[in-house]
Write a structure and sequence with these properties.
The protein has a 3-stranded mixed beta sheet. A 3-stranded mixed beta sheet has the order 4-5-6. The protein starts with a helix and ends in a 5-residue tail after the last helix. The relative contact order is 0.07. Helix content is 69%, strand content 6%. Helix 17 runs parallel beside helix 22 and helix 19 packs antiparallel against helix 22. By secondary structure, the protein is mainly α. A hairpin with a 5-residue loop joins strand 5 and strand 6. It is elongated.
């Protein structure tokens, strides 16, 4: 029986090591109690890798159900950034309890990481990244590098004796050099790209994209090395940034997660839902201004969603393009004239094409040339103005120092609804004799 149990553990270990993605999917689908049981049978290193792969909510739940000694060993073996992420997602009491179970040095390191603002370079950096002093010879450096992990050896961080950043070197440059050559003589004169711990995540992503970086050193005010940010970390950060932008655009808090409690979700979403309700009343008020016209020509009520829907989609397309341009630094606020003119023209040209199709459809349906012309003209006007709105809203928010993604979708929907309703019903009222 003992041999069978040992074989079972060996098969589980092999599956976890050789098929990490499949193992993660299995763990995500089983009860937390089974995850806890599995973690207790694994080495701290393997358990740390498992916790780093599954969702944050599931990992923290499992951590809280483990005994203190395994928790201490797992957090000690875990990447500090990942450990800080898990601890940072806990409530203060549980976080303090787990930190108190750790060695003083590790607890201090994790507290330092968690003290940096959310989505900053300090939260993304690897604080334990090894460096080599510039005074070493190539032979001495290679001897030290052999103790590095493979992922830390491809690009080397070179410092002086006080820990100040001097530059970066490729491992291949050192391997090909004469053993007696000093690293200082191999250094490139150009100053390496670096950043400070408070730099926002968006700027970090921009630095990696602009300079094609593999590694970004993080330094303090005296240029001493605090840590480095890896390319893989930035890729994950970019994905998180895109996901949180999507949440913010529709009025969802950036820090809400899929497994957040219903009360947290309600508290985060309710203010923007109330704002959305207010804007909906504004759109309804516009329709109310033309109550008599709608009562006289009931076909207008049937066609209202057509105009509002097309203008809404046009605005959403413009918003998506501008948000991407701002995120990737393709455009800045100073480009506002070119951007607005382009989106207005794109909206108007699309509006003309859609107006022809819409007018023909309305003509066949209603047998009214006047109604077909009115909805066609309204379509061109509303789609042109929707393109303008979709571009202007994120640019205006950026100019005011606000997050351009913050509920832009709610603001845009309000504008496009009002513009669509007003243009269609206003033209119908002006040319009512032709309907």
């Amino acid at each position: 029986m003992a041999d069978l149990r040992a074989l079972s553990h060996a098969l589980a270990d092999t599956f976890i090591d050789q098929f990490p993605q499949e193992a993660t999917e299995v763990l995500e689908s089983v009860p937390v109690a089974e995850i806890v049981q599995l973690l207790q049978t694994q080495s701290p290193e393997r358990a740390a890798r498992l916790l780093g792969r599954i969702s944050t909510a599931l990992a923290t739940t499992a951590l809280l159900q483990l005994h203190p000694d395994p928790v201490r060993q797992i957090l000690s073996a875990m990447d500090p950034v990942q450990a800080a992420l898990l601890l940072g997602s806990l409530d203060p009491d549980n976080r303090k309890m787990l930190l108190n179970s750790l060695d003083a040095g590790l607890a201090r390191e994790l507290n330092d990481l968690m003290s940096y603002p959310e989505a900053s370079a300090g939260r993304l950096m690897q604080p334990r990244f090894p460096s080599v002093p510039a005074r070493l010879t190539v032979k001495q450096a290679l001897k030290r590098i052999r103790r590095f992990s493979p992922r830390d050896a491809a690009v080397l961080v070179v410092t002086d004796d006080d820990g100040k950043l001097l530059g970066l070197m490729d491992l291949v440059d050192i391997v090909q050099a004469d053993p007696g050559t000093l690293l200082a003589t191999l250094m490139h004169i150009t100053t390496p790209v670096r950043t400070n711990a408070l730099t926002p995540r968006e700027e970090i992503i921009n630095l990696f994209s602009r300079y094609k970086l593999r590694l970004l050193p993080v330094v303090d005010i005296e240029d001493r090395l605090l840590g480095v940010i890896r390319q893989s970390t930035v890729l994950q950060a970019a994905q998180e940034e895109a996901a949180t932008d999507m949440q913010a655009m529709v009025g969802v808090s950036r820090d809400e997660r899929a497994l957040s409690s219903p009360l947290i979700a309600m508290r985060k979403r309710l203010p923007w839902l109330n704002i959305n309700l207010l804007t909906a009343f504004l759109a309804a008020a516009v329709v109310g201004l033309f109550e008599n016209t709608i009562a006289q020509f009931t076909a207008l009520a049937v066609l209202l969603p057509v105009v509002a829907g097309q203008s809404g989609n046009t605005g959403a397309q413009a918003l998506a393009v501008i948000m991407r341009g701002l995120a990737l630094r393709e455009i800045q606020v100073r480009h506002w004239q070119r951007v607005l003119i382009k989106e207005v023209l794109a909206g108007a040209l699309n509006g003309i094409a859609i107006a022809i199709v819409t007018g023909l459809g309305v003509l066949i349906w209603s047998k009214s040339v006047g109604l077909a012309v009115v909805i066609g003209v309204a379509m061109v006007i509303s789609m042109a103005l929707a393109g303008l709105s979709g571009a202007a809203i994120p640019l205006l928010l950026t100019r005011l120092g606000q997050d351009p993604a913050q509920s832009a979708s709610i603001l845009l929907t309000t504008v496009t609804d009002i513009v669509g309703f007003f243009s269609f019903l206003g033209l119908a009222t002006l040319f009512s004799t032709l309907l």
